[in-house]
Amino acid sequence: MKTIRFERDGKVGNIILANPPYNRLDSKFAVGIREAVREASECDIRVVIIRAEGPNFSLGGEVREWPGAPAPVYVAPECYWTRGAPVWDG
To answer: CA nearest 58: which of 33, 34, 83, 84?
Structure first.
């Protein structure tokens, strides 16, 4: 399964993050984004929209893949999440 894909609708290109629900940026992301950008550059589109499948655009990097880096879980006490949007308390 591709985690990023390129689709075209007339002169509009769409690069789609397709790894819901979190659309994490992992090692497949680098390959997929390169491929999608190459596809976009080889056609006569006028604009590229980057969008995502699922409820979240992206929750960031997949830290478990970072070599030698620990993956601690940290949640700031002043920030809580409600329906994907941050709600600040403080």
So the answer is: 84
Question: Is the distance from CB of 66 to CB of 33 less than 8 angstroms?
Answer: no
Which class in CATH covers the domain with range 4-60+73-88? alpha beta
pLDDT digits (tens, 9 = 90+) for 33-73: 899 999 999 999 999 999 999 999 988 887 777 776 655 54
The encoded tokens of residue 14 equal 């769409």
Give the integer Cα–Cα distance in Å for 15 and 32.
10
Three-state DSSP class for residue 54: coil
Written as six digits, the tokens of 70 are 């620990």
Q: CA torsion sign, 2 to 50 to 22 to 32? A: positive
Burial class (CB in 10 A: 0-12, 13-18, 19+), 23: buried
CA dist., res. 45 & res. 79, Å (int) = 40
Domain ranges within the chain, ordered by starting residue? 4-60+73-88
